[in-house]
């Protein structure tokens, strides 16, 4: 699975980053829990709670939602980030799941942002496809096909996306023929 659209740690977060993250939270927690999240943000903005208190409340609310917590980490100083122990596999059987790390996801998202920096509509569509898949509005097949179409012509972005997919869904692009 592709990680949520979040900015690289230490990078300046943008309105687009915040909007994409808010959509991800809303899609994950429709209703009361999302409203509670907004209330915590409003409390912080009104200075009724400190950053430490607000971050702790959000971390408690998002407990068990690793993707949301990782995304939240990008909007808070390092000392307020949620830390995760390294996960170890119980068995030694090979997995069909790629081993893309969170850092790989960050690098890929930065590459996408760089390559699509002058194509805001295309960049928003990229994040929307990821959120639609994450929210189970589209299947993995639809997500892959939409990404291939969206990123058509950019071999590096299409192949880079493979690291987040199970091997059996890997995008294939024929090798370019070199003429000497």
UniProtKB/TrEMBL annotation:
PROSITE patterns associated with the record: PAH (PS51477)
Sequence intervals crossing the membrane: none
GO cellular component annotations of the record: chromatin; histone deacetylase complex
GO biological process: negative regulation of transcription by RNA polymerase II
Gene Ontology MF, one: transcription corepressor activity
Cited SUPFAM superfamilies: PAH2 domain
A Pfam family: PAH
This protein's UniProt keywords: Nucleus, Repressor
Main subcellular localisation: nucleus
Compartment list: Nucleus
Name the UniProt record assigns to this protein: Paired amphipathic helix protein Sin3-like 6
Lineage: Eukaryota, Viridiplantae, Streptophyta, Embryophyta, Tracheophyta
């Amino acid at each position: 699975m592709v990680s949520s659209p979040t900015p690289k740690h230490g990078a300046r977060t943008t309105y687009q980053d915040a909007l994409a993250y808010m959509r991800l939270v809303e899609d994950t927690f429709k209703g009361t829990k999302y409203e509670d999240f907004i209330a915590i943000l409003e409390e912080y903005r009104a200075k009724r709670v400190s950053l430490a208190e607000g971050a702790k409340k959000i971390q408690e609310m998002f407990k068990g939602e690793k993707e949301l917590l990782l995304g939240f980490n990008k909007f808070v100083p390092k000392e307020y980030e949620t830390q995760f122990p390294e996960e170890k596999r119980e068995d030694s059987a090979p997995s069909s799941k790629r081993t893309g790390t969170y850092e790989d996801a960050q690098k890929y998202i930065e590459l996408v942002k760089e390559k699509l920096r002058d194509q805001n509509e295309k960049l928003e569509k990229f994040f929307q496809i990821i959120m639609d898949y994450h929210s189970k509005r589209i299947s993995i097949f639809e997500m892959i096909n939409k990404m291939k179409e969206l990123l058509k012509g950019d071999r590096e972005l299409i192949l880079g996306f493979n690291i987040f997919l199970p091997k059996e869904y890997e995008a294939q692009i024929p090798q370019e023929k070199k003429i000497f």
